Amino acid sequence: MTDAKLREEICAVGASLYARGYTVGSAGNISARCDDGWLITPTDACLGRLDPADIAKVDAQGRHVSGARPSKTLELHRRIYENNADTRGIVHTHSTSLVALTLAGVWSDEDVLPPITPYYVMKVGHVPLVRYRRPGDPQVAAEIARRASSVRAVLLERLGPVVWERSVSHASYALEELEETARLWLMTTPRPAPLDQSAIADLCAAFGVRW
Which residues form the Class II aldolase/adducin N-terminal domain (predicted)? Predict the structure, then answer.
């Protein structure tokens, strides 16, 4: 995909997430891998009002080449791309239900939510918690880098999800499924039981899912 098409995809995904309340104000960021580096949304930009021309371009070493000043989470994105060759897009939001989940208490540090729906198993998978550090802290990027090849998402305590996939659009789909599962979990009393191991094994066999 050309840089121009990637810029359009970033803007379209950002506008869609913003319009549906997955992010507010100037929170969140999106990036896409290209042939000679990657594109990333500017620092403090509103995802609902992105201008393709303003999206920052950085080279393969993470040096700013053109566009507006890149997001403060640039290092986090760079470390994911370095440690997962299949990743072509990354989306980070401050989604309400997922931030609320970290405040209320996650299911466990290695699985912030139990596998309560088949599409959570199929589209999201295991999501570990990354304990709170300030936005842009390099230790967060280092911790995510260690996990980048084994999961497709993490949940930052008090800050929200970071999801990486084969495109920006696919990363947003997984993020939406993750947010919806958190909403279901938080609104249900008593808490629903997870799918049992035989049901998960059946999904893996039928759809080639890795769990």
Answer: 8-186
